[in-house]
Amino acid sequence: MQTNLNLDRFISRYVTKRPKSLLTDDFLKYNTELNKRINGKKVLVIGGAGAGTIGSSYIKAMLKFKIAKLVVVDINENGLTELVRDLRSSEGYNIPNDFFELGT
Ligand SMILES: NC(=O)c1ccc[n+]([C@@H]2O[C@H](COP(=O)([O-])OP(=O)(O)OC[C@H]3O[C@@H](n4cnc5c(N)ncnc54)[C@H](O)[C@@H]3O)[C@@H](O)[C@H]2O)c1
Predict the structure, then answer these.
(1) Which neighbouring-strand residues pair with 74?
(2) Is 30 among the domain residues?
């Protein structure tokens, strides 16, 4: 049986028990400044394929902005494939046309 698990909703309801991230208010408060500093930038993430950990969380945070180019390097090629599948099947991410994932 296949279930459609929304990981963010699951974590919010059962793990953190908070309806929104602790960072939400800060992101709203500094939205203009963050957009100014991040939009149009080229981003390189080494070790970005760890599912649900720092690298992939950083990538997801960056893709809320309009970055010009994203390069993700990781020794875990399956993790890279999963990351790309996750990003492409999720809503709300601005995936740049210049998006590369490189296995080492
Ligand atoms: N998770 C935490 O709470 C936490 C807290 C503080 C610091 N850190 C540190 O942050 C770093 C990342 O933590 P994480 O939890 O995301 O780890 P993780 O193991 O989930 O992710 C690390 C990623 O780096 C990749 N990697 C390993 N060696 C590589 C190499 N030579 N080239 C390219 N990719 C490589 C792995 O395949 C993996 O996808 C670690 O150094 C960890 O000690 C983590």
Answers:
(1) 103
(2) yes
Instruction: Assess whether pLDDT exceeds 60 at residue 1.
Output: no
Say what the pLDDT of residue 16 is: 93
Structural domains in the chain (count) = 1
50 lines ligand 1 (CB under 6 A): yes
How much is the pTM?
A: 0.82
Determine the structural domain holding residue 37 and report its residue range.
7-103
101 versus 26: the higher-pLDDT residue is: 26
Q: How many whole angstroms from 53 Cα to the centroid of ligand 1?
A: 7
- Whether 1 is in a domain gets the answer no
Q: What is the pLDDT of residues 44-54, one digit of tens each?
A: 999 999 876 89
53 lines ligand 1 (CB under 6 A): yes
Query: For residue 66, what is the domain's CATH number?
Result: 3.40.50
Helices (H), the chain: 7-10, 24-29, 31-38, 54-62, 77-88
Q: Which ligand 1 atom lies nearest to the CA of residue 54?
A: 16
81 contacts: CB under 8 Å, gap ≥ 6: none
Question: Best substitution site from 75, 80, 86, 102 to test ligand 1's pocket, by max atoms within 8 Å of Cβ?
Answer: 75
